[in-house]
């Protein structure tokens, strides 16, 4: 009997990486089992000195935290390339029944005689009296969710809603930068930077997607129809991890939306609730750098936690979300990460004043610079979420 049990256990261990929902059953969903933890102080430098003003934050502590995240989680963010080509491959001035201009833009970046191509889909309100503010989605789902023909419409990217509200809406797909596959993720941006693959703190897929968002921002600065000072970067789930990292790295983004991003996104790792670092690194070894694997089941050894990533967005507004049936993404841990980032915003004279405990389901707290909601339902991004993102954008 013991031999049979051993064989079954070995089989389960072998298949868990391929069936994350089975692995999820082994994770903690009981608040009483959350271990005690002490968060690193975002405003205490490695030297022990306390940060008390914007200058010290911006010149010393912020770069220090950014490097800690680069070295231990997300990897480096290379910036050098040889040249870039931007070309509008399609321009339809009568999209959405005349309400929008559709631009399909090819952005091609060259380095060392190789290139990567980003295919950008962009709708701009056709009757805008001034350059339009923009929502940019990092699309980690099927490309049909962001169909430029609008034959298929998805509430994951409700372009018509954004246009009717006076916003431009843009997207690119993660596969252009790094296929979301452990065997092929290097067939994109990392062909330009192969040295990153040899480094323990080298960029991988999440970093590549954020890198792509930064290159799209370069294009926005060239497009006279857009207000590049009013760009909100948006991501869902793994895309929400990337939107946070893009906003932390590139301060040109006016605000960040991270939707249901969970562990290694907006949720605190030290709570060990729902998805954990070890599960991510087992199921998705291509997302984060090699050093991150040192913290499998050792969250308390991390020199950072996700409230510090949110702090890197300051003083710009940030909106994090969850869903009631998505405990895997730790809604409470997400809210607590936001709450623990408030002290950094206070350096700028901003006082988010989030409530002491998470707001109720479908009771969004939308008072910049830090907004939050937990929506009724599953792990997804819906029209309800987008309607609140619009409210958020209009509020600042």
From TrEMBL:
rRNA processing keyword on record: no
UniProt-listed InterPro entries: AB_hydrolase_fold (IPR029058), GCE-like_dom (IPR054579)
Residues in 4-O-methyl-glucuronoyl methylesterase-like domain copies: 107-349
Pfam family, one: GCE_fung
Keywords: Hydrolase, Serine esterase, Signal
Superkingdom: Bacteria
PANTHER family reported in the protein's UniProt record: ALPHA/BETA-HYDROLASES SUPERFAMILY PROTEIN, ALPHA_BETA-HYDROLASES SUPERFAMILY PROTEIN
Name of this protein: Pimeloyl-ACP methyl ester carboxylesterase
